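INTERNAL AUDIT FORM
Audit reference: QA-55
Scope: verify that the stored structure record matches its stored sequence.
Auditor: D.O.
Record contents follow.
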Amino acid sequence: MSAAVKAKYAGDKAPVVQFLKTLDGLIHEGKFREAAESFKKFEEDNRDSDFMVEEAIPFRVQNYLSHTIGATAFVKYTLRHSTWAVELTRAFHDPEKFDTFVKNAAAEVKKLA
């Protein structure tokens, strides 16, 4: 790997790091459909890095729900839905499903708050 390529993917310059920052912003603005849509473009351009985003998406959504609704309620939700992270990651590949999944999860977490 050349020095130029290494520099491109080093630290905060890495496309995945930049994308995760964008993803955080979209999720915290409640733009779930847009978040999943932006992933499709990222995935096309960064085939070798897409798994890093898939691994990070449950934490991003957990962080959003914990901060906007409540951490205790979110923990209760996860105890009742032990496969939520897997289902969320699958839904992330379809913007409509992802939007629906996160909104439904948020509604359930609110009921538990």
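Auditor finding: record pair retrieved intact. The chain is about 80% helix and 0% strand.
Action required: none
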